Fold these 2 entries.
Entry 1:
Amino acid sequence: MASQKALNPPSGECRQCWQHAYDSRAQHAHLGPREDCPACVDHMRNGHPAALIVPDERRAW
Ligand SMILES: [Zn+2]
Ligand SMILES: [Zn+2]
């Protein structure tokens, strides 16, 4: 089961990478033991699409 933390990334974080990091087992369940996650690799190489970045709503500073 996904934790609340996995479903609520803080502003400025990539939703996909956050979810893959905190809900890794579920998000990578379809991968083999030594298989790279294409979604994670894509973001690592090409960066995170702006559409997936959580907007900064509560200006911390
Ligand atoms: Zn990402
Ligand atoms: Zn992944």
Note: The mean pLDDT is 90.
Entry 2:
Amino acid sequence: MPRENAKARHARMHEEYAILCETYPHPVCALNFTNPFELLVATMLSAQTTDKQVNKVTPELFSRYPDARALAGANVQDVERIIHSLGFFHTKAQRAIDLSRALLETHDGEVPSTMDELTALPGVGRKTANVVLGNAFGVPGFPVDTHVIRVTGRLHWRTDWRTPHPDPVHIESEICAVFDPADWTDLSHRLIFHGRDTCHARGPECGRCPLAGTCPSAGIF
Ligand code: SF4
């Protein structure tokens, strides 16, 4: 592929995103939630496991502990029992309780709706904050997870695509600079869908990928 300047790359990114929009017309958060508190806790629990696994445990968790006040006063062993199947359950149970206590102390039990306030909470990083902002509050957010890192790298959507361990904050700022803020959350969902469905970590299915016509990495695996 000839060397591509920034203008051409940005144009290709928009073309490829249009294809992703056709391929995944209904981008939604895969975690089940009914309010910002549930999404915040569910996202925290989703580290190192799948959203499907989290969705199996959260109905019991939120029926016993429906808000920050209830979870802040929970018995840690009871929370561990409920989330046991997720792995790292000791750490996650304590983190969920600590997070709820912080929400109670600093925000009267409500989940804040700004990046700075969210990332000031214990155990909440930019990825979790962006998930909550974009999906619970409708505030533009671009969560960068392992699928987003892999797919944007293979597509050369970012200039550091050769870097083995790129900085998620840099990825977020570089990709967000090219797209309208109104698209950020759905763009992240669609990249995640594509990573799960086709552009797998091992054995990407380039032969049936709708982006294969322009993807610089098509067929090189
Ligand atoms: S062509 Fe292959 S490497 Fe490129 S996005 Fe599609 S599956 Fe991934």
Note: DSSP finds eleven helices and no strands in the chain.
